[in-house]
Amino acid sequence: MKNVRLQFETYLSLSFSRIMMLSVLIMLSVQFNANAQEKPFSDILSQPEFSILQNFVSESDLLQSKKSSGGYTFFAPTNDAFMALGEEKLKYLYANPNEFAKILSYHLVSSKVYASDLSDGQIVTMRDGTDAFISLFDGKAYINQANIIKTDVRTYYGVIHVIDAVITQPKSILDLIAINPRLTWLLEAIYAAGLDELLSSTGYFTIFAPSDEAWQKYQDKVFGNSGNKSAADYSDLLGNHTLEIETYSNDLFDGDIIQTLAGMNIKVTVNQDGVHLNDAKMIYSDFNSPNGVLHIVDKVILEESNVALGINNFSDVIGETNVYPNPATSRTSVSIELKESSEIDIELYDLTGKIVKRANFGMLLSGFQTMDLAIDDLDAGLYIMNIKTGSASVSKKLRIE
């Protein structure tokens, strides 16, 4: 599922909204380039709006990594887009052309991608090997945070789309949220809760991000009618949507129970309609950043759900549970809060569902307990850890490096 993007499945049938979104790109293309004639790249850059680009890029530069007939796609920032970086940043780039080249490599695709090839939620691999993200939203087309204002400007060897901002690679999952135009509430909530430093830090996180539309639907249900939203309210709510491990869509299996940062348990359902987390459906998946992965969901994930978790008396037996270090190499530890004395078994499953390790820790007293597990005999990869008592269990993801 990681390679077969979930968002493409959402748009296999051309819904009315899909057609309307595509029409945005088509109209932009027609307005700028009605005759769709190919022009020399130098003619495009000679236009006043691209005078800054003229100093740093030529068609030979764009083709250097793709000398075959495959061509290129260039998302071209205007002068205003570069000026928005600020005078000091521009001075630095002028003084360091190699740094300018690095930025421009994140604006280039080593094949021709026309407006009709773009879809909402699409992940585009840029020439530097990292991803950029397409959004067709609110009557506009975006790549990352930049609005695509003109499309399908054809040159002899490629195609240009004009954008109104210089796009940058997300350095954290917080950046990934900030560049997505349909996650403005989530970004506001993160800062209100004081979680911005955490989500910018080293480590691995997964966020199931409710869209702005999802938030608007569920605002009254989450906070009531008072409108009073404290930092604690935001923190608890965001914790219900966050995992402290990097989890891609293909890491989720039907029937999984995953525990969030806030300690809430979510049931995963995978069926022909997609991936569901309690009642929320994952509508876009696998937006990656250096410290985590982002999935967008169509509902706020609440503890009240129409989906039964399928765990007997979970909250009466097992409290807070953590696995650390994670990722791990030769050993890992499980910290667990037992609300009553229980016998503990731990099972590790590989992604085929095969049990690769079992350990019994006997009867442990109530309270916080720590169990060490040797894993130096296992290959690197992602595993499912099932921690069981006589009447309850919890699943965790463990990545071995």
Written account of the structure:
The chain is elongated, with a radius of gyration of 24 Å. It is α+β, with helices and mostly antiparallel strands and 401 residues long. The chain has three domains: 6-163, Roll (FAS1 domain); 173-297, FAS1 domain; 314-400, Immunoglobulin-like, CATH 2.60.40. The chain contains 14 helices and 21 strands. Helix 10 packs across helix 13. A hairpin with a 5-residue loop joins strand 3 and strand 4 (131-137). It has helices at 6-10, 16-32, 41-45, 51-54, 59-63, 79-83, 87-95, 97-105, 173-178, 184-193, 196-200, 212-223, 231-239, 314-317, and strands at 72-77, 108-109, 123-125, 131-137, 140-143, 146-154, 158-163, 205-210, 242-243, 257-259, 265-271, 274-277, 280-289, 292-297, 318-324, 331-338, 342-349, 355-364, 367-374, 381-388, 393-400. The strands form four sheets. Strands 2-1-7-6-5-4-3 form a seven-stranded mixed β-sheet. A seven-stranded mixed β-sheet has the order 9-8-14-13-12-11-10. A four-stranded antiparallel β-sheet has the order 18-17-20-21, with no helix packed on it.
Uncertain regions: pLDDT < 50 for 5+ in a row? 1-20, 29-35, 304-315
Q: Write down the domain tally.
A: 3
**Considering the protein shown, what is the CATH homologous superfamily of the largest domain?**
FAS1 domain
What is the CATH third-level topology name of the largest domain? Answer: FAS1 domain
What's the average pLDDT?
Answer: 79
CATH A-level architecture of the largest domain = Roll
What oligomeric state do the depicted chains represent?
single chain
**Overall shape:** elongated
Q: Give the amount of beta strand, in percent.
A: 25-35%
